[in-house]
Amino acid sequence: MSISDSTGFSRTAVPAGSLIMSGSLGIGTNAPTQKLDVRGSIKLGTNGELFAPGGQENLRMLRGIVNANGTIFVGSGFTINRTSAGIYVITFDSSFGGPPAITVTPHTSGAAAGAIITSVSFSAVTVITFDAAFTATDFQFSFIALGTR
C-alpha cells in the first residue's frame, strides 16, 4: 500500500489492520494532541455519504421513546421505571460526566398534554407526563439526553 501527500511525496506502508502504534496519530496535523487527532472533515458510511459530527466538548448522546406503560419502544443505554401514573425515572446505563441537557416531548393523539423534567442527575432523570388539567397521566414520550462523557 502506498501513502502520498499533497506534495507528491509517497512511501510504502503496512495495511491499517496490521499497524501498531504506541503514540498519537495525526491526520492533517504534525502535532497530534490526542491518540487520534483529525484536522478536517471526516466522511463515514458505505459511500462516504455521512459526515462525523464535531463539537467543542467530548459529548455523549442518548435518545429514546418510552411507551405509556413504561416500556422502551426505541433506544438503548437506559432503563425505565414507571413509579406511578405519568411519572417515569430514566436511569442511564453509564453515568454522564455531569448533569446532561434533556429534552422531552409527549406523544399524544390530538389530546392536549405536556411533559416536564422534575430532576436531573449524572445518572438519571425524572419525567412527568400530564393531561390538559395538569394531572399526571400516562403518555408515550420521546427524550434526548446530551452531556459530557
List keywords for this structure.
single chain, 149 residues, mainly beta, Immunoglobulin-like, four-stranded antiparallel sheet, elongated
Note down, in words, how this protein is organized.
With 149 residues, the protein is an all-beta fold. The chain folds into two domains: 50 residues, no CATH class; 90 residues, Sandwich (Immunoglobulin-like). It has no helices and 14 strands. The chain starts with a strand and ends with a strand.
CATH class of the largest domain: Mainly Beta
Number of helices: 0
In round numbers, the mean pLDDT is: 85
Total beta-strand segments: 14
Helix-strand makeup class: mainly beta
Taking pLDDT < 50 over at least 5 consecutive residues as the criterion, the unreliable ranges are 14-20
Strand content: over 45%
Oligomer: single chain
CATH architecture of the largest domain: Sandwich
The number of distinct structural domains comes to 2
Topology:
Elements: E1 2-4, E2 10-12, E3 25-27, E4 36-38, E5 43-44, E6 50-51, E7 59-66, E8 72-75, E9 78-84, E10 87-92, E11 101-107, E12 113-120, E13 124-131, E14 140-148
Parallel strand pairs: 3-4
Antiparallel strand pairs: 1-2, 5-6, 7-8, 7-14, 9-10, 10-13, 11-14, 12-13
TL;DR?
The protein is mainly beta and 149 residues long. The protein has strands spanning 2-4, 10-12, 25-27, 36-38, 43-44, 50-51, 59-66, 72-75, 78-84, 87-92, 101-107, 113-120, 124-131, 140-148. Helix content is 0%, strand content 49%.
